[in-house]
Amino acid sequence: AEYEFLSFIRQHTPPGQCPLAGNSVHADKRFLDKYMPQFMYHLHYRIIDVSTIKELSRRWFPEEFKMVPHKKATHRALDDIQESIIELQYYRASIFKGSAEEKKRKIVENGGRTRC
Question: What letter does residue 13 receive in the DSSP assignment?
């Protein structure tokens, strides 16, 4: 299985560029570290955990969070992957975009100065 994963990912990503991503992906990382070390070696060392973004959005942007696409909860690998992608796309379009636009507006209002 590792050879098939590695062959596929090598066709689509250069070494060290693609992070492991998904919901609660730390459990997947432990499994992959143990059973597919060459596959993990090909990936970037950082992880994108959509669950973390979900929790921050729920706390910091409750109105936008109400509109997050609902999951089927089939717990099938392909469904989980596709739903994680859709969920992250939602956060990018609705929360990160708004945050970036707000930040730009504040920078303009402050005459180009940023605050920490």
Answer: S
Tell me how far apart the alpha carbons of residues 69 and 65 are, in angstroms, rounded to a whole number.
9
Domain-wise residue ranges, the chain = 2-109
Mean pLDDT in residue range 82-107: 82
Is 12 considered catalytic here?
no
Radius of gyration in angstroms for the set of CA atoms belonging to the chain, rounded to a whole number: 18
- Yes or no: say if 6 and 38 are a contact pair by the CB < 8 Å rule: yes
> What mean pLDDT comes out for the span 10-39?
95
Look at domain 2-109 and name its CATH class. Answer: alpha beta
* Number of other CB atoms surrounding residue 43 within 10 Å: 20
Exactly one of 26, 42, 70, 75 is catalytic; which is it?
Answer: 75
Q: Which helix (H) or strand (E) holds 21?
A: strand 20-22
